[in-house]
Amino acid sequence: MHLTEPVFRALADGDLAAANAVSPVPLTPLFIDPTSRGVWRMRSDQLQKDPASAAWVNGVIWDERQQVAVGHAGYHGPPDSSGMVEIGYTVDPAYRRRGFARAALEALLARAIRDPRIRTARVSIRPDNVPSYRLASQYGFVEVGEQWDDEDGLEIIYEVDVQA
Q: Are strands 120-125 and 142-149 parallel, antiparallel or unpaired?
């Protein structure tokens, strides 16, 4: 479920009430934790510069059965000039190990596979995030390098050819 720039800006400001006033679904405190707020700042700035990227960036992982937001996931933006998209996802600790990250990753990979512009999907994972690594490896992601992220520190970069 996509979010809009006004929701991103309110979340970046840490104002959950304002975000919920313009969000299509109720959001939880996970959406204003320090890590998430950094994501919303980036996405808000991104949408101000490139409104067309709205269809590509983070949305809500929504549990239909419980009618609750259990996390957020999306691409870091539209495909780049080489046909690569980077996937990101976060699941609320209270809802982990219930298949939500897997469902989000599968949905994002399925969209990438359907889009002929996309050749590669990427995920960047902290070395200590073993559950995310295990999940990504089940979908063919292989290590291609590493990078330093100002928010998360060292991340290992994994990619998969979605056209294979």
A: unpaired
Q: In degrees rounded to 5, what are phi and psi of residue 152?
A: -105, -10
Tokens representing residue 85 in the block: 């998209």
Between helix 100-114 and helix 130-137 the angle, nearest 10°, is: 40
> Nearest to residue 145, comparing CAs of 124, 119, 121?
124
Kindly report, residue by residue over 112-137, the tens digit of the pLDDT.
999 999 999 999 999 999 999 999 99
Q: Kindly list the distances between the CA atom of residue 143 and the CA atoms of 79, 126, 129, 135, in Å, as whole numbers in the listed order.
A: 20, 12, 14, 13
Supply the DSSP symbol for 81: T
Domains of the chain: 5-116 (3.40.630)
pLDDT for 150-164, tens place per residue? 878 899 999 999 998
